[in-house]
Design a protein that fits this description.
Layout lengths: L2 H13 L3 H10 L1 H11 L10 H21 L5 H21 L9 E4 L2 E4 L3 H9 L5 H19 L3 H12 L4 H8 L3 H20 L11
Antiparallel strand pairs: 1-2
Length: 213
């Protein structure tokens, strides 16, 4: 049974005070949330902040605010959890980086606030994956630089749609909701961004074309 198919029943039980159901609700999306945090964690803070710490803070707040959510659920539960985790990450960025984190270009505007952007560097790192030997590491570093430069040539919105759809694996409806776009607009922009990304990968020797849909 998928997480999404379990969610309605667990929400119902949790809304009636079942703490075990609430705990399971907060746990079944852990991998997706961790992927989001890892993708958006500022590279200057890697090694200083663990995604697990961000999720722990997010879960504590979600548990405290769960009653408010079930009384007025204005978005799907996962997007609500994701929003809270993203806000916690944004607070940590500002706390640790100070004014260096307050550049609006490093944040993604949402209809209810902002989240740290998925940078070109983070997307490039995800694309090249992990290479362990010294020679592989050298190839990886060169490939990542070239991918990052190419991704910088894309619009911020297109990079964000790629991050949401391809890396966070949100649905088109979820992506449209997060970015306050019409679903048809989100779908069209994703198709164009994906085509652009494939073109970028074609021009980078050794890039992982097979991972693209």
């Amino acid at each position: 049974m998928s997480a999404d198919s379990e969610t309605p029943e667990l929400l119902q039980r949790a809304s009636q005070g079942d703490q075990q159901a609430l705990g399971k609700l907060l746990g079944i999306y852990q991998d997706r949330l961790r992927r989001m945090v890892h993708l958006r964690l500022d590279r200057r803070l890697q090694g200083r902040i663990d995604p697990s710490d961000v999720l722990q803070e997010a879960y504590l707040e979600a548990a405290e605010r769960f009653g408010d959510y079930v009384r007025a659920p204005d978005m799907p539960f996962y997007l609500w959890l994701r929003f809270i985790a993203g806000q916690k990450l944004l607070v940590l960025h500002r706390r640790h980086l100070g004014t260096h984190a307050r550049d609006a270009r490093r944040e993604v505007s949402l209809y209810r606030g902002a989240l740290p952007e998925a940078s070109s560097a983070a997307l490039a790192a995800q694309l090249v994956g992990h290479r362990t030997t010294p020679s592989q590491a050298a190839v990886r570093a060169e490939m990542q630089v070239r991918l990052q430069e190419a991704l910088n040539g894309m619009s911020p919105l297109d990079r964000e749609i790629l991050a949401l759809r391809h890396f966070e694996q949100l649905t088109n409806a979820e992506t449209a909701r997060v970015l306050n776009l019409r679903e048809s607009t989100a779908s069209q922009r994703y198709a164009r961004a994906l085509l652009r990304l494939k073109d970028i990968l074609t021009g980078v020797p050794g890039a992982p074309h097979e991972d693209m849909p």
